[in-house]
Amino acid sequence: MLRISNKEITLCDSCDTFFDYVPQKNTCDECQRARRRAYARRKYRQRPEVKERQRKRKREYEQRPEVKERKRKREYRQRPEVKERERKRKQTPEYKEQRRKYHQRPEVKERQRKHERKYRQRPEVKERRLKRQRERYHRKKKLREEE
Description:
Layout: H1 2-5, E1 9-11, E2 18-20, H2 29-46, H3 48-62, H4 65-77, H5 80-90, H6 93-104, H7 106-120, H8 123-146
Antiparallel strand pairs: 1-2
């Protein structure tokens, strides 16, 4: 903190690293390079010849039979009557029993547990969970005090 107040070093606005103080400079060299590269990339993409090349590639890609088939299936599944039929099928006891059996299999359970563990390690999820726990704790504590 002393070096910052003495204006020997300063904090980068974008990546929060320290670098040598220079008046009116608020980003480190790496971030400035990255910004220049991103700007150049955007400018490059705006060129007419590059846009035309991208359009051509996209057109060719969309003409492939497997891509057309996927698109056709996706559009079919979006139809209201198909959605309704699928919703009704999922409500049948046979379907529910089949799903229940599938989710009871050990390899499926293990895969779900693994995914759940990975999900819980994410910082935003941890923070939400801790916040809920704190709120619940204080709510219960308040109820106990009122009794």
